[in-house]
Amino acid sequence: MNRWSQVDPLMLAQGENVLRVLRDGGHQAFFVGGCVRDELMDRPVHDMDIATSARPDEVVRLFDRTVPTGIQHGTVTVLMEDQAFEVTTFRRESDYADHRRPGSVEFVDAVTEDLQRRDFTMNAIARGLDGELIDPFDGRSDIERGLIRCVGVAEERFEEDALRMMRAVRFASTFGFRPVKSLWKALLDGRDKLSCIATERVRMEMEKIVLGPDPLRGLALLERSGLFRHAKAAQGPAATEAEADAGGEAPGAEAALAQRLLHREPPRRALLAALPLLEPAPPAQRWSLLLQALGAPGEAASPLLKSWTFPNQTAQEAAGIVRFDEAWEAVHAGAPGEREQRRGWIGLQVAFGRETAGLWLRRQQTVLQAASGDDAWRQAGQAMLTRAAQWHREVQVHTLKELAVSGGEVLQAAERKGGPWLSELLRELLLAVAAGELPNDRQTLLDHVKTGVKEDGSKSVD
Ligand code: ATP
Ligand code: MG
């Protein structure tokens, strides 16, 4: 293997420059980790990590632009043109505290020693400037056979760093690989140590599983391994590391829901069938579906995702889709005619916003595609979604700010004392404009307010 075929040529040229500068400075330097593995698997390479015998201060000295990203652990980011490369000094790790990060690192001179600290054989291959591979653990043959195998003794490696168990499941799911027997056994024996790992790091692996090409396989592996329920967040939102150490097992109310993740209660399989077909971006589409498949009600969705440290935007969007789905279900069931349905839809679109309604529409289109049902059922579903998509396009205003009249103007026109009626009236005006029943024109709206007030001395619009 001499050429890289999966790397952007500009990135490759600069990466090779970094290797050259290090080599010319009298050091060893290699590409390592994910980039070498992905190239061997014919998968696109997104970044190129570099390992070198040069000590961090030497790396800083050799390049014009560097950032001391994690200099105490040996990592310096080197900037070349518009590319950034993480350059890490060969190191050995030891004194793992609490099955997490290494307590101390020691710089070493041999690349093979550096490869030895890495998690799986497929991630422990180095590649030099001339394309030569340094593959002391036969990672290449494991890649060819689709196997995930720890470097060294699996029990020990999971004992050192429990996140590696999640990473094993993640790679199995995203690559369609099989964990070797010894790894799986070590994982079953060591799974309770996952509770020592920060929720955020576990969540990031879960995201790669759920947003990856085969989320169902990953979820099934999480279920079979029992890993999920040993995650800190699944043991209750208040569970601190100290409590986990003390063996705090009793799950809180939210945790009980979290534990349903494919473990305690069978999910709604029909919904899950759509999971792999949904676009992974934005992620809220897949998460909202997963939550519903687990039977999580809309009001629980946002706190649940937040306790798993999801970014606010994802938590809000996913919860919004679930709540929209529930609200639409209720409207749909209670509004038999198309006119009422249209008004109901528009009311929800105004309440939840255009974005959420749009995300729900896109998601439901995929759910319908994946669902098994007879032709008549499918056609009815499609007709419904087509109508809703039309209504979605028709709505032009979503907030009171977009209305051509202000609260003050309405108050003046109504010649009444302010009160709760005002905000109710404004919402009704907004809905009438959104539904195209009134034009968004200042005078028309004020005239409408005046007639309404005159007619019944109150706030009615219709
Ligand atoms: P991805 O495609 O997700 O970036 P990756 O293998 O590059 O996969 P990174 O988290 O970027 O994963 O880590 C880079 C490399 O560092 C890995 O290939 C592996 O060699 C090593 N590594 C990462 N995490 C661990 C860990 N927890 N234990 C041991 N080695 C690790
Ligand atoms: Mg990487």
TrEMBL record:
One of its GO terms (biological process) is tRNA processing. It comes from the Bacteria. Its EC number is 2.7.7.72. Its cofactor is Mg(2+). It is an enzyme of class 2 (transferase). Residues 383-448 form the CCA-adding enzyme C-terminal domain. Gene3D superfamilies: 1.10.246.80, Beta Polymerase, domain 2, cca-adding enzyme, domain 2. InterPro entries: Bact_CCA-adding_enz_type3_sf, CCA-adding_enz_C, NT_sf, PolA_pol_head_dom, PolyA_RNA-bd. CDD domains: NT_ClassII-CCAase. PROSITE patterns: PROKAR_LIPOPROTEIN. Residues 29-149 form the Poly A polymerase head domain. Keywords: Magnesium, Metal-binding, Nucleotide-binding, Nucleotidyltransferase, RNA-binding, Transferase, tRNA processing. GO terms for molecular function: CCA tRNA nucleotidyltransferase activity; metal ion binding; nucleotide binding; tRNA binding. It holds the Pfam family PolyA_pol_RNAbd. Residues 176-230 form the tRNA nucleotidyltransferase/poly(A) polymerase RNA and SrmB- binding domain. Belongs to the tRNA nucleotidyltransferase/poly(A) polymerase family. This is CCA tRNA nucleotidyltransferase. It comes from Paenibacillus mellifer.
